[in-house]
């Protein structure tokens, strides 16, 4: 019972509203509360034959998922995962317009089903450890000390996943496993948003299911993420949710770093389409190490492509504008890293980069 409960996100929630029990909502035509929606309502509208439903969920679990989920048999890991989902639930609640309807179910039932699968797999791993090895899979007293250790370094990965959010056939679990050992993962070429939201001009957009599946696979590995406010590309228009533009996204392990909104972050230019200085306007992500004084800004880029001399000149110009932004003196921050898809042809092109002196 405890293993199941800690995987239900609203059990890792906020005391002032009793884990969502005090938040009254209308859900799918009936009066309820937020906690009950996540406890039973969303599942009940999907299935009434519980044994068949359990068999269906179990049949969809892959051996890779079993290995991944049973590698995390610490209750605080499970609780932190649930808390990250809960934060998203409360953010989505800001747009509540009187009733939770079909769109809410489509977005959140896959999350609930994933948490149910994870809980079952981990309960099996816990019982195997207790009954097979005669011990809990964590050291005595570890519950009180987990997360208190500091680490000597942070690992940062940048990965251009071609047209993420466009292809239905991507192996999201395998991609997540490939990058899932790093503290921060920046991804280029996410061509559609993984969550609902509103563009800076006030226009609403909806989550893309393919992009969302990859993000859920990353969330299963303990990641949270920061997403740019819109997409960017070389054409006259953005907001296309097509491969001609892309969103910036940074995944991070909240036990290692947290976003640092007091540092320079966001877009490096106001216009995100057909922008004179960039093919794709870079986006800056600022982070601070948990429990430490280290902070830094990652500038995620996808520079102009091509091997012609004019393309190399274009990339050099893009790098110069980035350097100007970093040296603008808008803050005292000095730790900037440019990461991403550089499209730089060879070492010679890199060594030929020369930047204007700081004014």
Count of runs of 4 or more consecutive helical residues: 11
**Cα shape:** globular
**Number of β-strand runs:** 13
Mean pLDDT: 86
Are there runs of 5+ residues with pLDDT below 50, and where?
144-150
SSE class: alpha+beta
Indicate the proportion of strand residues.
15-25%
The biggest beta sheet reads:
5 strands, mixed
Entry keywords:
11 helices, 359 residues, single chain, globular, alpha+beta, 13 strands
Summarize the structure.
Helices cover 37% and strands 18% of the residues. With 359 residues, it is an alpha+beta fold. The chain has helices at 2-7, 34-44, 50-59, 63-70, 75-93, 102-133, 142-145, 172-179, 209-220, 309-326, 347-351; strands at 24-27, 30-33, 156-164, 184-190, 197-198, 204-205, 224-227, 247-252, 257-259, 266-267, 283-289, 295-302, 336-341.
Task: Give an overview of the whole structure.
The chain has 359 residues and is of the alpha+beta class. The chain contains 11 helices and 13 strands. It has helices spanning 2-7, 34-44, 50-59, 63-70, 75-93, 102-133, 142-145, 172-179, 209-220, 309-326, 347-351; strands spanning 24-27, 30-33, 156-164, 184-190, 197-198, 204-205, 224-227, 247-252, 257-259, 266-267, 283-289, 295-302, 336-341. The strands form 4 sheets. Strands 9, 10, 11, 12 and 13 form a 5-stranded mixed beta sheet that branches. Strand 12, helix 10 (309-326) and strand 13 form a beta-alpha-beta unit. Helix 8 crosses helix 9. The chain is globular and about 65 Å long. The model is unreliable at 144-150 (pLDDT under 50).
């Amino acid at each position: 019972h405890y293993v199941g409960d800690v995987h239900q996100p609203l059990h890792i929630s906020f005391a002032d509203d009793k884990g969502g029990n005090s938040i009254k909502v209308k859900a799918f035509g009936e009066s309820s509360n937020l906690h009950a929606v996540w406890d039973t309502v969303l599942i009940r509208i999907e299935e009434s034959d519980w044994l068949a439903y359990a068999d269906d969920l179990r049949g969809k679990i892959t051996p890779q998922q079993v290995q991944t989920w049973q590698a995390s048999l610490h209750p605080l890991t499970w609780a932190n995962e649930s808390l990250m989902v809960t934060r998203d639930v409360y953010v989505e609640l800001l747009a509540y317009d009187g009733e939770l309807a079909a769109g809410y179910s489509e977005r959140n039932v896959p999350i609930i089903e994933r948490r149910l699968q994870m809980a079952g797999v981990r309960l099996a791993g816990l019982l195997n450890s207790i009954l097979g090895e005669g011990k809990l899979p964590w050291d005595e007293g570890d519950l009180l000390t987990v997360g208190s250790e500091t680490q000597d370094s942070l690992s940062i990965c940048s990965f251009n996943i071609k047209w993420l959010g466009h292809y239905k056939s991507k192996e999201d679990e395998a991609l997540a496993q490939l990058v899932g050992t790093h503290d921060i993962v920046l991804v280029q070429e996410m061509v559609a948003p993984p969550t609902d939201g509103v563009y800076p001009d006030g226009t609403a957009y909806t989550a893309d299911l393919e992009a969302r599946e990859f993000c859920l696979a990353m969330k299963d590995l303990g990641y949270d993420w920061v997403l740019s406010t819109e997409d960017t590309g070389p054409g006259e228009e953005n907001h296309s949710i097509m491969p001609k533009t892309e969103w910036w996204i940074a995944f991070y392990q909240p036990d290692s770093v947290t976003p640092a909104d007091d540092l320079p972050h966001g877009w490096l230019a106001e216009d995100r389409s057909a922008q004179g200085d960039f093919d794709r306007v870079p986006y800056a992500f600022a982070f601070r190490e948990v429990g430490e004084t280290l902070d830094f800004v990652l500038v995620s880029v996808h520079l102009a492509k091509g091997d012609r001399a004019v393309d190399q000149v274009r990339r050099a110009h893009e790098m110069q504008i980035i350097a100007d932004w970093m040296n603008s003196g808008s803050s005292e921050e000095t730790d900037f890293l440019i990461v991403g898809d550089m499209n730089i042809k060879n070492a010679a092109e890199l060594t030929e980069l020369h930047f204007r002196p700081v004014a």
